[in-house]
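Table S4 entry, ATS13 metalloproteinase.
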Amino acid sequence: CQSVPKPESRVEVCDLNPCPPRWKVTPAGPCSSSCGLGLAVQLVTCVQILHGQEVLQEEHLCPVAEKPLTSVPCVVRTCSYEWSFSEWSECSTSCGNGIQTRQDFCLSSLTHKPVNPLFCRRFPKAIVVRGCSAGPCPEQEGPVSPGAELQPVTPATHLARAAAGTEHGHKDLDVPLPAAPREQKKPGGGEEDTAKRCFQRVCGNLFLNATGIINMTGVEGRDCTVAIGRPLREEISVTILESSLNCTAGEVLLFSGRMMWRTGCRKLPLSLINSRTNTLIVKQRVVLPGNGVILQYNSRTATKKYYQDCDQQLFGPQGEIVNPVQLPDQRQGVVCRTFITVAPRQRISIRALNTDLGPEGNHTHFNYILVRDVSTMKTVVFRGKQQFLWQSTGSQAEIEFHE
């Protein structure tokens, strides 16, 4: 273009109006899962450039249809192990309401073969028991709604009864337990009957009083387990008054709680054990008849707070569990828990009468109910709108209500 006259360079203003608001996305945070598919949260805001500065605007000013997702899928690494399940069994009843079950097993992602379930203990597991309906039974006149055959429940046992029992000097259990059947006395079996009555009176029981003495000597059977329970704000201390355990024969005493685990045999007399929480399990294993320990327990206000304000503690043979409501001044992200402790000789069944986790309960990783079996530390996660039946292997369970 050298032979062509070159026009003068000019700069003209093309538009004096500010740029319209737009969506701004910050980098996503950490993945919700340490392995496998998870979700990462990213902050999405509506901003506008005014006089060269980025100004935050109301979200309705940005195009709603173009708003990016606040949660995006993420994978940190492939999981080495994962839960797998068999097909659901047939309904347990030919008509009316029943249950279906399925088997769970831990799979290796490399060999695709079952391995020890301990490898999957850190991963949430889906339900293995669910409700089903095989239609109305012939004798029923009308349709049966789901859950119509469920037995009503009464409010859970409250610790006020324990306090009342202590004031009047009662040392019996607060939780009403079914009476053991009377045994027919046999000639010459007085000592044997006494041992059996002692075993039934102590072993397998739950003690809810503020203080007491537990005599575990001369009980029948190798293993004898007792539990002590108090309100959430308290902790339990145990003093061993006497011990006739034979350590060389393998006899031992075990203390376990949510925050402690201790075993011992030698130098037990006058030793002190602190539970650091409001529940304590004591298990005695003897080999020689007549051996055992005598314990004295007391409760006091806990030195450190080990629970959330929305946590609940339930004792007793039956009760109703309601999702705890967070207080207005509680920080976001707190997980509300319900602790259930029953007598060691009993087990726990939890039936969901109504579960409604909201319209996105089936799709979000952050909205679910987690049930933990304390004896095995195995967890099960329930999502969405479903009825379920969960059963424990031990006498303690924990429920976490997420979001």
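The radius of gyration is 30 Å.
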